[in-house]
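User: I'm writing a short report section on ligand binding and want a predicted complex to refer to. Could you take this sequence and uridine-5'-diphosphate-xylopyranose and write out the structure as tokens? A short remark afterwards would be nice.
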Amino acid sequence: MAHLAIIGTGYVGLTTGACLAHLGHDVVCADIDEEKIAVLLQGEVPIVEEGLDDLVAEGLASGGLRFVVGAAKAVSDCEAAFLCVPTPQGDDGSVDLTYIEAAARELAGTMPSETVVVNKSTVPVGSTRVVERFLERSDVAVVSNPEFLREGSAVRDFLEPDRIIIGSDDQDAANRVASLYEGVDAPILITDPASAETIKYAANAFLATKLSFVNALAAVCEGVGADVGDVVMGLGYDRRIGHQYLQPGPGWGGSCFPKDTSALLRIAESGGYDFQFLGGVIAVNEEQFSRVAEKVCQAAGGTLTERTVAVWGLTFKAGTDDMRDSPALSVINLLLSAGATVRAYDPTVTSHRGGIDERVEVGPDPLAVCRNADVLVVLTEWDEFGAVDPVEVAALMSGSGLVDTRNILDRDAWTGHGFEYTGIGR
Ligand code: UDX
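Assistant: Sure. The structure tokens for the complex follow:
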């Protein structure tokens, strides 16, 4: 059991702290946001993550998980301090290390000697050295330990990871970090910091590449009359390709892929390589938003002027309430620009928030937003949409256009009730 400090209580920090406490460590989580800490001390978890509230309750009850305001209070007797603060995208696409620097400088003055600083935030290659400079503590080692958590399955991804990556030139520090994961059954790769940081970006960039490939392939399928569902089924039997992560959609989004793919372009450029291929992956994704908007326009009869569009789904994927860089918001903005009136529903969005254009009317349920709509477009793959009765929707809508960007609705059932169904790649 080790005394650990977690700096930052967002979905990475809170998941990391709660899971490390579950593994038996003594964990103190710190944040600069007093309100957030007050809520957490009440046992309320402010983010939607399956199983996280149970782990937080377990940790609070056992005393193995505590919350304080300010990093300095968390590190007074810790053996390792995890940096889990935001690393947002700067205006020029680079990674903003402001929060990392502020946290490191706050830790520098209070950490005990021989503490290990564990960098879990996604930072550009070379940042471990940067954090060492911020700390100016020769008696403190900095280790890269990138996270591979998906929103909506962060707890499972932490406790049952495909791998644990540790980047450090200090073998003892690396071994100390590896020992914290005792009880987690996964291969541990210890490498140098630059390689560990590169693995993180490479993983997200490759996953985004796989998605842009399948979205581009869906466009080919539409052109040649193939069904992308069967095509990716046939693809996935090749064990080198696999069936996972080949679901076409409105494009990829979220708080990581857009930020990390742009960051990797700049990191490559700083290393003297023009990563054009990755630029293409990003361009295909941007194009997907326009392709979806064009499908909606065609479904509305060739124009969106004075047309009403019902939107099902606002979050960047099902299973989360996060709308950061959501493809749904990108598509909605294109529809608004083309003159459409947009009414949107999402099970996790009960009021206007986080990036929704103020012209969008946010509705209370899937049917309410369909009233007098010319077209219905599905942008997020929430299960509840598949359970809505097409008969009820048809009775409410004034048009019959349906664009299913997640291919989740029963095409025959909806077509059978008079809808003109448009999917992605089929
Ligand atoms: C991602 C990585 O998966 C995770 O390892 C990393 O640590 C953080 O970024 P996350 O952003 O939570 O996780 O979402 P993910 O589930 O990977 O989906 C990313 C985007 O791809 C979403 O917009 C999702 O809708 C889309 N997607 C995913 C598809 O369109 N099709 C798929 O088959 C899978």
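A remark for your report: The mean pLDDT is 95. The chain has two domains: 3-191, 225-426.
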